[in-house]
Specification:
The structure is a homodimer of 305-residue chains. Chain A is of the alpha+beta class and 305 residues long. Chain A has helices spanning 19-23, 25-44, 49-61, 106-115, 126-133, 141-144, 147-159, 227-232, 235-246, 250-261, and strands at residues 7-15, 82-88, 94-100, 121-123, 173-179, 185-191, 212-214, 220-225, 269-274, 280-284, 288-295, 299-304. Chain A has a single domain (7-297), classed as (Glycosyl)asparaginase (Glutamine Phosphoribosylpyrophosphate, subunit 1, domain 1), CATH 3.60.20. Chain A is 34% helix and 24% strand.
């Protein structure tokens, strides 16, 4: 069989700059590099795009500097509640979960869900019960809590005394897209949500068509930015539809949806994409998007524009 | 100001035929007629498309023959857990909720959420807490349970002893789309889920871009059918994108996505749509889709092809 060109791209969230980011540039760059390399290795050794996406996202979930898994934001109750989704572009199967607690790697939960027969999208306490049946690693809430996120939580709490935060500007996500040697694409996204947000808020990262989408006929896409803006634009699906209907390149589709269609948006929007030919597309309208990509020709790690 | 042509379309789910439906055709037809008339009246008296959609969906939620609100399916615990979403096409604001219990009219919860500043998409017990703050009508679980749905639940339980049902074929939804005198469109969807399904399953009807979507530049769309197939196709968003990129009519976009793009699907798919010029689009690939529509020129109520 003819081997296709493998490629992987990852992101660690799009948004504004911060002192914390500037103070930890080396850690962020190392984290992005480690994650993209770990996923690329899976592809190189013949693993599937789904496995590569899972591996890269797990690496970011396990890295305390990114808002997913360990290092997740704390909701208004001081608890970590996570969202995740994964999709593969061959059969277009998907798995997604919202309001996940105590699961060390939500992306693996989504992958198991996708590969099982237990439905496609679940949320709340049932996710913990199912994660136990899947033999996934569990952690107490304290595992997920970092001092940085606790400080951010406390700051928000002081700004909004007695009331949770419901603003539209909520972000902090990780994601990955990959194409494997068989030419199948996959996309995955995972998030810890927003500091001091309403417990029970379901994030865009758990939504197939918004956070993650994959279709071999178009591309695999993972989106990040202000969740509620991504939802109203059905961001990942919109990028896929742009390729479907116009035949444009993966990069052009990302540019079109983020810089043309949403030229006047107030939201931070970012997307990474890859198609079955190994072409990568990356676009964002914010000050920064933590990102990295690797192909047989290049390895790039970037944070700012 | 020039008044635009008003129009409303509703559905009460797409899927296979059943003895229960055949035995209650008169009740279904009356329920559809009452709902579409109630929404049309709102439009005639100058109400917004959002208000018309809410009114029509509430009518279906209150009608025990439809799987939404009273008459909802029972999950594996014998509880009613509902999903809903609403979106308006002018500012593209949206509200959506999953895993809603005890709220008499989930669509009104979604509308309040859309109009408030408390976020766009929430799920689980927080919905009850928020519904209380919204002063919405609440009902005990027993209000929602009909004998017909309990019999269906018991039948599924016998078929799947000791294990919840996780099949992809899960449906039973209501929805409405409308355009008002100002030429703004809106879409809303509500469902009681599937009998004996996993508690915690999040339904497509709660997903903006899948169950409901609205954009004045394209159309307002509400989808029904097998949830997991609707999710992987990002059904409502896909119909909107087809109009956006090809400039085809609302009816052609529904036909394209359901009969051409998904020609070989195994899933039951149905959609209703309306654009700012009052053009209605309706398509489904199943044996039946309960539906009705009303414009200044016609009133139609149909169940089979």
């Amino acid at each position: 069989m003819f081997m296709k060109k493998i490629a992987i791209a990852i992101h660690g969230g799009a948004g504004g700059d911060s002192a914390f980011i500037r103070d930890h540039l080396a850690e962020y760059e190392q984290g992005l590099k480690d994650a993209v390399e770990s996923g690329y290795k899976v592809l190189e050794s013949g693993g599937t795009a789904v496995e590569a996406v899972e591996t890269a996202v797990r690496s970011l979930e396990n890295n305390k500097y990114f808002n997913a898994g360990r290092g997740s934001a704390l909701n208004a109750e001081g608890k970590v509640e996570m969202c995740t989704s994964i999709m593969e572009g061959n059969q277009m199967k998907a798995g997604a979960a919202a309001l996940v607690r105590n699961v060390k790697n939500p992306i693996s939960f989504a992958k198991n869900l996708m590969e099982g027969s237990e439905g496609m999208y679940v949320g709340g306490p049932v996710t913990l019960q199912m994660a136990k049946e899947m033999d996934l690693e569990l952690e107490p809430n304290s595992y997920f809590v970092t001092e940085h996120q606790f400080d951010a939580f406390r700051e928000e709490r002081e700004k909004h005394p007695g009331k949770e935060k419901f603003a539209l500007h909520m972000h902090g996500t990780v994601g990955a897209v990959a194409v494997d040697k068989k030419g199948n694409v996959a996309a995955g996204t995972s998030t810890g949500g927003t500091n001091f947000c309403l417990p029970g808020r379901i994030g865009d990262s758990s939504m197939i068509g918004v956070g993650s989408y994959a279709d071999n006929r178009t591309a695999a896409i993972s989106c990040t930015g202000d969740g509620e803006y991504l939802i109203r634009e059905v961001m990942a699906g919109s990028i896929s539809s742009t390729i479907e209907h116009t035949g444009c390149s993966t990069q052009e589709a990302c540019n079109h949806v983020i810089h043309v269609k949403n030229e006047n948006t107030e939201g931070d929007l970012g997307a990474i994409a890859v198609d079955t030919d190994g072409n990568i597309g990356i676009a964002f309208n914010s000050e920064r998007m933590h990102r990295a990509w690797k192909t047989s020709e290049e390895l790039e790690v970037k944070i700012y524009r």
